[in-house]
Write the structure tokens for this entry.
Amino acid sequence: MGFEIEMKLSALAAAALFSAAFALPASAAPAAPVETFPGAPGVITLSGKCAKLVVAKFDATKGCRNELASVTLANGLVTFIFTSDGKALGFQGDGSGIKPASNGNARLPLSLVTTGVGNKMTGEVKVAGFCTFGNPYAGKPIAIECTAESKDSSFTGSFRTGGKLVKKGK
């Protein structure tokens, strides 16, 4: 009979150790991975303040909407789209070229500026330049600053978020 009690106690002790090992406090649980920006293919809309939008000598800042779209295509192209008075200006580059920049930001080298009206982007201009941006998923205000130059013109867009979560689309 002593053997049975010893076996039951051993089983209880093993069960207690097993449950203690897997009942970690919430703070010890692995954290959810931080979402990256611009991220997987799709559309992300950021709200905030369009601080500047200039094409050559034309300043479109006054009519610039307080939303910015980030479009990532399946082939890795990333476009930041500013809109002003029904017209759109997109700063586009290859997302695989994104590199770390200062202050925890990232930098996207640009190859094209796209233009359009409404939801249709129809014009393309080859450019050299960069967009520097933070991660809006961090929950704090960030800036997206884009500057590019073609052989004939220059393009500048600056946007600041309020730190609110973003809207995702397909």
In short: Residues 113 and 125 are 5 Å apart (CA to CA).
